[in-house]
Amino acid sequence: LEEPGLFRLAGNRDTMEMIKAKLNEGLKLDEIPFEVEVHDISNILKQYFRLLPEPLISYELYPKFLQLGNVKGAAAHKIIPQLKGLIEQLQPQAQLTLGEIIRFLVEVADNSDVNKMTPENLSICWCPNIFRPPQESPQSIMQEMPICFSLFAAFINFCSDIFEEDS
């Protein structure tokens, strides 16, 4: 949690491929027979979500999230009911997974004085892995991603208001 640039700094591509191969063989992280760096693991985690056939924020709900618009600061608090309502429309597994990721990112952001990863920085690193349009284009990236970044930062900033605590 105190690692500077957690989720921002790139991992070593060759090491990441070796780690993924070992994990796919059924080994656990503590069983991998070589040094595993935090940036390698953090990038593997983001990559896992990026490569899902359907992102956690489903393609179906993606436009509905975009309709909430680009919100910053206190204005984001006003859309919490709408955010919560949309998240409740996700598949149960996606809701639970998204909630766990966001709760973890809150912990990362709570250490931003050391790791430099504020909710806004984390949204830049994580958002493209969670929010994706069905068809990515330069136009969708330029116009839609700033909205997605602001919504994702709102997830982190207002986590306890948006996500129910799970047992």
Key structural traits:
167 residues, 10 helices, mainly alpha, 0% strand
Which percent bin holds the helix content?
Answer: 55-70%
Evaluate the radius of gyration. 16 Å
Helix vs. strand class? mainly alpha
> How would you sum up the global shape?
globular
Question: What does the model show?
Answer:
By secondary structure, the chain is mostly helical. It is built from ten helices and no strands. Helix content is 61%, strand content 0%. α1 packs across α2, α2 packs across α8 and α8 crosses α9. The two termini are 23 Å apart.
In short:
The protein has 167 residues and is an all-alpha fold.
Question: How is the secondary structure organized here?
Answer:
Layout lengths: L12 H12 L13 H13 L11 H6 L6 H4 L2 H8 L4 H19 L1 H4 L3 H12 L7 H20 L1 H4 L5
